[in-house]
Design goal:
three-stranded mixed sheet; alpha/beta; Glutaconate Coenzyme A-transferase; single chain; ten-stranded mixed sheet; globular
Length: 218
């Protein structure tokens, strides 16, 4: 059974370690804050100038003045701080963020990522993605394995304009967890009930399949 967006976020939350400063991109990554273990301390950063984000607010408890980079209402934890974009991007460019979690339209098997523009479609701008992928040493991508037409989004070469080159380290999709290596994608885990053959058929890029591929533990 393929994962839904919340389950993808739940699996990625297992990659968040105690003491990490983490940037959450727009889309599925924003859900990760809902699933981080309660026995660890993590600081979530948003490039619009927030440090110390918490889970999404309950319905009726939203504050329209407290939002993330995707303009979604958020909560803040005790000790949270607010600052301007220059300070926020100083944190990012200065490599003070331990983990960046981004969505993507395409990822190539060498770690290239395309996540900001589809030619011909109106776009407001690239946001902070360019800075994040250029500065981060640890990037995890949250995405669907295929597009709505059923075609792979894990490719030999990205067809869309690139956001970053050779920067993605790990990918969690609705079908699998994959690591990006010099030899392409390596299959680490598969979603419950999803076969290795299903993942192989849904992956266009180079894919190494170990002898034993365990199911994800959600």
């Amino acid at each position: 059974m393929a994962l839904d967006k919340n389950q993808i976020a739940q699996r990625i939350a297992q990659e968040v370690k105690n003491g990490y400063y983490v940037n959450l991109g727009i889309g599925i990554p924003t859900l990760v804050a809902n699933y981080v273990r309660h026995d660890i301390e993590v600081e979530f950063q948003s490039e619009n100038g927030v440090l110390g984000m918490g889970p999404f607010p309950f319905e009726g408890e939203e504050d329209a003045d407290i939002i993330n980079a995707g303009k979604q209402t958020i909560t803040t934890l005790p000790g949270a701080s607010f600052f301007d974009s220059a300070t926020s991007f100083g944190m990012i460019r200065g490599q003070h963020v331990d983990l960046t979690i981004l969505g993507a339209m395409e990822v190539a098997d060498n770690g290239d990522i395309a996540n900001w523009k589809i030619p011909g479609k109106m776009v407001k701008g690239m946001g902070g993605a360019m800075d994040l992928v250029a500065s981060a040493e640890n990037i995890i991508v949250a995405m669907m394995h295929t597009n709505k037409a059923g075609k792979s989004k894990l490719l030999n070469t990205c067809s869309l304009p690139l956001t970053g080159v050779g920067c993605v380290k790990k990918i969690v999709t609705n079908l699998a967890v994959l690591e990006v290596t010099k030899d392409g994608f390596v299959l680490l885990e598969r979603a419950p009930g999803v076969s290795v053959e299903d993942i192989k058929n849904a992956t266009e890029g180079r894919l190494t399949i170990p002898d034993n591929v365990p199911e994800m533990n959600l």
